[in-house]
Amino acid sequence: MSERKKKPEELRSHRWYGVKDLRSFGHRSRTAQMGFHASDYAGKPVIAILNTWSDINPCHTHFKQRVEEVKRGIWQAGGFPVEMPALSLSEPFQKPTTMLYRNLLAMEAEELLRSYPADGVVLMGGCDKTTPALIMGAIEMNLPTIFMPAGPMLRGDYQGAPLGSGSDSWKYWAELRAGNITEQDWSNVENGIARSPGHCMTMGTASTMTSVTEAMGLTLPGAASIPAPDSRHAQMATLTGKRIVDMVWEDLTIDQILTPAAYDNGVVTALALSGSTNAAVHLIAMARRSGYELDLQRFDELARSTPVLANIRPAGQYLMEDFFYAGGLRALLNHLGAAHLDLDTLTVTSQTLGQSIAGARCWNEDVIRPLNKALQSGDSLAVLRGNLAPDGAIIKPPAAEPHLLVHRGPAVVFEDYNDMSDRIDDPDLDIDANSVIVLREAGPQGAPGMPEWGQLPIPKKILATGVRDMLRISDARMSGTSYGACVLHIAPESHVGGPLALVRSGDIIELDVPQRRLNVLISDEEMAARRAAWTPPKPKFKRGYGTLYLKHVGQADTGCDFDFLARGKEEDGDEPEI
Ligand code: FES
Ligand code: MG
């Protein structure tokens, strides 16, 4: 511990436990009821552990065990651990999409910390939205905060070859549809693709967001790359518990860590990993909670100069297990170095980022490339604008077949997901490999929840000709494990009357990634006439959380946060008295 800045009576939990009144009597007697003696907690930091374990979240199955290891560390360091279960956003199971509930978990995290006697917090997450959601909630409370990443699962195994989460399901599904593999082969993929606890082990949203979180200083150094079942992951959990107690005494709050420079480091890391496009939505939302106006343009600026160093699927060749053995994120950050990162940012260790990556070695330069052998020199993400996306859209150029990055073709429009499912494989559909597949009603309000539908399916009859990529555009997101020439996050979305709502089949759509342009080649007058004739679709919810969501969710370019939550620190109200 560097320096003790707090006395026990200055702890936030002192208001619950330390004062002499009737209510604190209640808190103490009820803690005794749970089997704890006063000496277990008196004068000690109360550490909330927000645990997103659930029987239906396969990525967090080890959290039952890990939380015990976190607690062990907290006890050893002289803290009092309090596990608080929080909404588990389980990517494979939750419908229509976990994104509908990211802000709900963020609210829950914030309110758990506000309403209970937490002096510091360990956030346990990893499966896609859990990471940004927990952090968004914690930002508002501004306690000492440390993130314990779930860690990637082991490589998949298919007849002796590695399988990658997501990416290989799409790939082999297409092969099955094209008749190139058997039902038995497909069943072998099903049983081999996810064979241990942990989050997706491709560079999907989970690996991207946990790595970004580490680069921004919110985890112990090296934490995000350790495979979930590795015994070093359990050790990391214990060390995380130990560290948070000292962070409370040091009063090392999350706002000292998540500075604008840290957010830039986060963006650069996401880009150098060729990470999930979802990082753009989540980092913008997180930054805005911190009171910084991170925007899409910043992603585009940093993308131009950030080399892709991680050779991980879907943009590269390897998986997270290989990345760990090659040296993990510390090695990658060390390669990026001061040329691309601000190494003076503070981390949870109270050391700088530069200190926490100093001496990190790379053991396999094919997996974690040095700067002079980058997979590509820049442009792992591009922000597009034009009359189809006045507030921006994004594409991941390395995931697309290069010939599609400058492309013109006639639109084939689907009104919504069901329309697409019904007609995409219709042998009579007027479409060829040059066409541009357009899906609307897939944005934050339209779908609702902006699901990961953006990797629109290629019609069977075109797959049968050997074509594996086409230009596809929508207001949806795309799973980080997906690939293809998919323009995503079109803002404003079609549901609220964005120009995407006005495109018609046969219109020529023009994409020019080098020029960052996305246009539908119709005149302004024609666009205006179509707008005048447009009627808004019906809202998707009439009651419950859904109505709150529809009323308050923002568009993709601002991070899809709720308007009443996305605000800067200067507007913070006082915490209500307990
Ligand atoms: Fe949980 Fe992919 S399903 S991270
Ligand atoms: Mg995902």
Automatic annotation (TrEMBL):
One of its GO terms (molecular function) is iron-sulfur cluster binding. It holds the Pfam family ILVD_EDD_N. Transmembrane segments: none annotated. It comes from the Bacteria. Residues 44-355 form the Dihydroxy-acid/6-phosphogluconate dehydratase N-terminal domain. Keywords: Iron, Iron-sulfur, Lyase, Metal-binding. Residues 366-560 form the Dihydroxy-acid/6-phosphogluconate dehydratase C-terminal domain. PANTHER family: DIHYDROXY-ACID DEHYDRATASE, HYPOTHETICAL DIHYDROXYACID DEHYDRATASE (EUROFUNG)-RELATED. Belongs to the IlvD/Edd family. This is Dihydroxy-acid dehydratase. The lineage of its organism: Bacteria, Pseudomonadati, Pseudomonadota, Betaproteobacteria, Burkholderiales.
